[in-house]
## 1
Amino acid sequence: MNLDQALRDAAEPVPPRVGQPPARRLLESIVTSPVPPPAARTDGLSPRAVRRTRRTVLAVLAAGVAAAAAFLVPNLGAGAAYASWTPRPAPLPAADRADLGDRCAAQVRATFQGVDGAPSIVHGEKRGDYAYVSVVTPAWTATCFRDRDGAVRQASIMMAPVGAATLGGAGVEMQSWAQLRTGEGLCRLMTGHVGAQVTGVEITVPEGRGGPRVVQATVEDGYFLAWYPEKGQGHGTTVTLRLADGRTVEGLSAKDLHDAPVTD
Amino acid sequence: MNRSTPDPEAVFRELYQATYDDLLLFAERRIHPALADDVVAETFLTAWRRLGDVPAPLDEARAWLFGVAHNVLRNRHRSENRHQGLVLRILREPDAVSGAEAEGVAARVDLVRAWQRLSPDEQQAITLTAFEGLTGAQAGRVLGISRPAFSLRLLRARRRLRRHLRSPHEAVALNRPPHPGTTTEIGTSA
């Protein structure tokens, strides 16, 4: 049963009222009130958004210096743990993906009985001996990690994700940024939903003996996922979006993205 | 919402037309209907004064208005010294066919009872998404909590609702409001 629909069905309907006299009177009283008329905005961005954009630009400039020194180094900072991990992902074979997706969705539904059994899309990747999948439905998204011993762990779930229309061309919603402890230590698992123009996602992790690490995410159908060994708290981790027209959006703070999506 | 025009009044009228019904429902779900008009008026007056702060995309503008209304409601509750949670009535716009009609009244009664056993915060979380159509990020902003925190709250609320639906005859006094001071209810379809 779809809970949301059942609730809506059980609710009391009311007719539209915007055209009725009380609503019209309220509107006229507001626009003719002695309150000074507001300054109209025509750029489509609120001042708050402008401030946020400025912060992003500054972050981009600051991150540019760090990013210049960042490079893809296999296993850097991973030590003996996660020895087969790679900064670039490999595709997850279709049969593997279907099996892991089914197991993941079953775990999610068993653990979180409030989620509906909506049709889901599974994205996946391999890095060394490990597999990672995200299960996406319109109402929730979840991730599962398959360890090298074959054990599947449900890693995260997020409810009420943003829709594709909201993300526009270059928006991004981080849908999980969980840390998982396996027998080899801690690792970080990230997934998200990106705008239609985004063709690549890279994650820059500041920790590492040789400098920042760049992790290339798997991007499929507007969704991305990546995981990497990480002992720390994720401070300073940034996300870079590569767009179809060659532009990049750099320096998006992973922490900020975890709190709120960036819409285009 | 078209922000191509520099005329603030035209922009506001467009916003008002597009969001009035949703905002009135938002208020009516949370406060006595007789007071909902005041909340709507105060919210739109705030929007008029701060039109430059209202996000341009309609769904974001709608969520912004809900956030203002949420604060108006909270201030009212505070000023009236009413230590009550959400007063939550579930209302919606009518549509042509109700699936619940086919499923029968009994299922609806179970759902109403399960709903009544949720806490105000749980009802709030489900209402913001299921009825008001907000994303987790928008709902978190309305409530002043982080998106992950809202996601967790929503997950727990839905899990508890399902649990109540599966065991509708647990030893809970269903014939009284579960949270003193609230008038939580689900209305029936017309």
## 2
Amino acid sequence: MSESHVQEEGFLFQGAEARVYKKTLYGKQIIIKERFSKKYRHPVLDSHLTDQRLKSEVRAILKCSSCGIKTPVIYMVDFNSSKIYMEYIAESITIRDYIENFLKDGGNINELASLGRQMGKLIGSLHANGIIHGDLTTSNILIKSKESGCDLIPIDFGLSSLGRLPEDQGVDLYVLERAMLSTHLNSEKLFEELLDEYRLSFQGGLEALNKLSEVRMRGRKRTMVG
Amino acid sequence: MPIAIGFEGSANKIGVGIIRDGEVISNPRMTYITPPGLGFQPRDTAKHHRENVLSILKEALREANITPKEIDVVCFTKGPGMAAPLISVAVVARTLAQLWKKPLLGVNHCIGHIEMGRVVTKADNPTVLYVSGGNTQVIAYSENRYRIFGETIDLAVGNCLDRFARLLNLSNDPSPGYNIELLARNGKKFLELPYCVKGMDVSFSGLLSFIEERAASLLRKNEYTREDLCFSLQETIFAMLVEITERAMAHCGSKQVLVVGGVGCNIRLQQMLQIMAEERNASVCAMDERYCIDNGAMIAQAGLQMFTHGQRMDWNETFCTQRYRTDDVYVSWRD
């Protein structure tokens, strides 16, 4: 990240495609997510992708809120500067940090079964409502505790699409599986719990799981030369 | 100082390399080149390897100026790769190990690239983009495994380029990808192609079918030149690769990226990675043939690491296999 952005007021962090700022608007804390142009890409491709991802993100978040899935509220979108102004979710951390903290405090990853089930339920309801996240990782779901239990809040919908194809749902799960197993050691059982609840909570779950095993086989069976 | 000899022949290159303490002392190789429009078939490739492996071995020993007696360990590619070529080389390595009475180690081909890249660039813990004819993976090390963060869910990037080259009837000499790269340098008009990134994974099959269906008619109507198509293809698929590499780097908090595999030789890909790295205050390890293009020394280097950390293989473990994933290997030589 370049110095100028670090110094800019409210700068939080720079992800792969966007800079995130925390600012105050009418006395409310908000997040500004600014997509920036990637210099390595051909300009035509770059502007196409930046626009498309901004739109996908807004579209999926609106769809979530119309289906009762908790996501950050969008206050404003500025297409010219590729910025989304959205709700700041106070006192939340990513599931990734949550798991890492839990392990640091001496917990065993298999004690997190109920978290896995809650994630499965969340993804089931995204898919049931025709939302494919496209970049499911434990960094892209926030966890916020409340009086009884906790809320899970999916974020980062830039790669999302709308649709109900089992193929897309299967790939969505595959992406999450890969991200989880490579990030959190020994999370196989946790992921199984997740899939179990996914299947129970989402009617088309079984079909998506069949696709998931097909997609896995594609990776395994692919001849690997060179 | 331990000395290792490595035999590589998992695809269309046959190579024998000798390594002494991380230093390449000889590394001859040959490539099986097929006529334009044709790929390399397992049977013919194996035949090519069988016919050339002994003369390459002699050359390797002569260039290194050592006798078999001085060698400490014989290493060969256990997989992944095409079965017939793998077997043709494994037979040689197994025979020599018995003749010379040396321990024999089967090495994962992908790990060979990575270990060679690490020793040449002295990069301690880079995020690795592994791109070749058969592999497309984004890899990072953690807790004794090279973990695959992202990969292709269908075609490998090199395979996609090779098939496109066949479509345009480009020469396979020195490699189809290189001839695409040369044409792409003169391309100007950008054709938008399907861009398919899913998290840290990519997919190329849709893009390939798209261009396979349209290439002939676009060229016939003079809407795009061959140069334009090569240019558009490179710009699109490399942007996908750089994007997932960057995402993995952001995910792992990595500040260094190493590109290995044949496609890593492409100057445009290196340039794009360089720009991406600069934008996030990271660095790209310099490209080098020693770890990009398949060769024997990289197999010797990974084998030497295993050997000096006490790994030995029973005779019945020294087989080869077409499917051997990078994350299947227990990496005993790193903390």
## 3
Amino acid sequence: MKLLEWRVRRVPVGKISLILGILAFVLFATWKIWALTGYWSLEPYFDSLRNLFLTLRDKFGGPGEPPMGLYNTLIITLKLLGILLVLLLIGAYSTLMERKILAFMQDRLGPTRVGPRGILQPIADGLKLLQKECIVPLGADRNFHYLAPVICFIPALMGAVLIPFGKGLMPVDLNVGILYFFALGAFGELGIFLAAWGSNNKYSAIAGFRAVAQLVSYEIPMAFCIMSIVLLSGSLKIGEIINAQIEGATAYGGLGFPIWFIVPQFLGFLIFFLSAVAETNRTPFDLAEAESELVSGFHTEYTGLRWAFFFLAEYVNIFIGASIITAMYLGGYAGPELPFLGETLSSVVWFCLKVFLIFFTIVWLRGTLPRLRVDQLMMLCWKRLIPIAMANFLLTGIFVFANTVRLTPQLWPVHLENSAYTSIAAIVVILILMFGLAWFFAKDLLKPMKERDV
Amino acid sequence: MLHDKKLFLKKLKPFFNDYAEIRGQLIFILDRSKILECLSFLKNDKDLKFNMLHDLTCNQKAKGLEVVYQLHSVDNSYWVTLKSLIPFESLVAPSATSVFIAADWHEREAFDMFGIKFNDHPDLRRILLPDDWEGHPLKKEYPLGGFKDIKPIWAYEEAEDLQNLPDREILDSSIINPDSDDKLKVIES
Amino acid sequence: MSDPKDFLTTQTGTLLEKESEDRFWLNMGPQHPSTHGVFRILLETEGEIVKNVVPIIGYLHRGVEKISENRDWMGALPLTDRMDYLGAMSNNMALTLPVEELMELEVPRRAQWLRVLALETNRLASHLLFYGTLGLDLGALTPFFFAFRQREIAQYLLELLSGQRITFNYIRYGGVRLDITTPIEREFRKFITGFRPAYEEMWNLVEGNEIFRTRIIGVGESTPELLIKHGVTGPILRASGVKRDLRKDRPFAAYDEFDFDVITHDKGDTYSRWYCRYKEMGESLKIIEQCLDGMPDGPHIKKMPFFFKPPPGEIYSVTDTPRGDLGVYIVSDGSRFPYRVRYRAPSFCNLSVLSELLYGTGIGDVIAILGSFDPVFGEVDR
């Protein structure tokens, strides 16, 4: 038919500029090498690569390893690919898990067709999405539209280094661990906003504004909760935080007794959990997607693999959020050793169990709750969560101060015997105080929200 | 009981020319000039309180179009029908929107389907049909299939027939213009 | 993206307020996931606050009235199924009623009771759909599945009764098409026993859900005066405190023989509309039970020729549908064909008040309010 013969002839500006850019860079680099060394060589390239691999070996291989060879490079590359694959599988299989849990809640079966009990469904979905065309709207900003899924996805992958899978199985115990988690959250926002802005769609634009307002707001209560945890554990390192919960003692002083932080920080746990749900754009805070209001929100104009990137990023983010909650409040991989499994494996099992619990709760929320309105969402954050989180922070400060005084008898105003009884009595009093105040505020948190205007 | 016949006849005496009762339903026939007056009387009268304009439509007669008002009193549960003949020579009726805001969409629909003009209507344009539609379909002289012979696209068997598609205005400037000489040209928005 | 502003300035000059830089036009529909069909609203928003609303309808216009004029009376009946496709029974009823009145037909009592049975089962199915879709509009998935599980059974019952799932064409001039049999009655009773616990569960799912309540209480408040002014009827009017139900005030079929309450609520907001429809489901269930218990004997239809000629005359009759008053104005010239059939669709009138209710609300509320109106666009556009 004649209708099909019309073609759009378009100059591939993006590709041409990319190729020109690479060419220019290579020419410039070659010239620079020549200018610096006086001879033509690719040695500096290799040097920088070697440095990279050495750094990686320091991180992954540890001291005492044989020097870097091609074999080790290969191993490390394979390891990295393995982690990537595991992460992608976690992202993909979270969807299946969510669909199955939701189906269970709604008296349905969920996916059953692909593989036994639908176990291959995510892979089939992935393959389907791979084949699909990536459509870019005519009026869209092509570069932003292209970049946004990448910017969304990469921080999600980068967050994986923080996950303490088990005892001694933490990829990297960064000394700014929690801050790093925070920084990655901010990166994700950028991706969402770029997607919303680059799509040239009004629904997307509104979703973008909503997302930025929401994510920026919900970082504040989250930060307060994290600071409380840092006060209790005395460290920003995830490993240290878990240790503080298992062993009780830290270099800073810490609590002096082992306890999961969900007990003294129950309020903080609630707030952090809600904020984490909001940060990952899940129901009831999925205003940036809001499929009944804004069609699909910021990814309305995305198809195929680019859309899949958003999707994967969301689920990987949920996984990372759940892991951080587990590490911060539920004692990470702590748990009694299971028979026949050994220490490491049973710690992995405990960690996975706890993460699944959190994930299940998040899906449960989706199964029961509708979406909040924008003003209610912001009100919940600014009028409820932030004041309570601040109060929680203040109380934690007082608690830590009291605890420090308890542990150092020189500071006591009245000399008392530092017996086990006084210690236990002090601990009990402090815990009851914390719990009482926590419940006092939590009741307030659960009160119905009547005011409509912000 | 749909109405109180005695009361209605007494109250509406100054307005109607004629009345009829079909299967327990009162129908008053009035002049075009008295429609608005009668409507506002029915609405404001304390005993009748016809506060809802339930329906407004047209009916084609030999000499003109009959505008039919169905009024309803929610409080008293009364129903009454008013009719007025608008001759074909001047298809203009007074708009009831000043009395009943509910008449807004109904009058637009009557205009859409019958081509009757309503004076002082705030926004008289087509409501169900596209704005560029020709004719008023519910008139008796309008054929069932419409005036134009427009076939659906799958009814054109030959590829050549596609060239002879009826002209349509291209509303979205961002699509490819099939009528331009250079068929590969993209029209930028 | 073509700017609807150009379209608007040419089309609706008077509706436009002064232009402002903070505002922009948002086009919702006709292909929007939650406009409940092919409805298009242009919203002028300031941030998320709606400042101007232009509803555009007509995307599903099929000319039912015109086609009816070109068919005989029997041929006009199946077209009514295609108007309000969620409450098709009541649309059948609406057309048969004036024709029977005009012909002064005596409809057998059993037929009237069967009509009530079919109408109320259909009302139940329609309100169940409303329950589910309101949940979807607010972003909750589970109510939809809970409601549709029951609606599926109701739909199955209607299929047993009439032989069709959506377009029943069951209520005919002079009675109903098929009689009810004992196995079908048994299925009905099974449905009633199974429905009660699910009904309770559905109440808890919304009433015990804080976010659900926050989303619908106080949203889209309306006064009875405003609604009556715009000709709004049905559950929406009842939700604002007006105790008006045509099944009581102007009984058709055999509704005067049944014992049921008219559900009202005083606030007139989205929650009230939800409440009224929810409670009406219970009343429908009551009526269905009474129907099954006291079904009179006799023929289910008065034998009629396929082609018949009603005497010349005109009738405006009104029936109550799940969405409000469906008025049918018929004019007969004494021939086989209707001279004029006019449907006063309840959703059409209900939607006209929308632009007043939406002013000043947010985009999320627009969807909630539109969902609580429960419009069917087959009926609006006809």
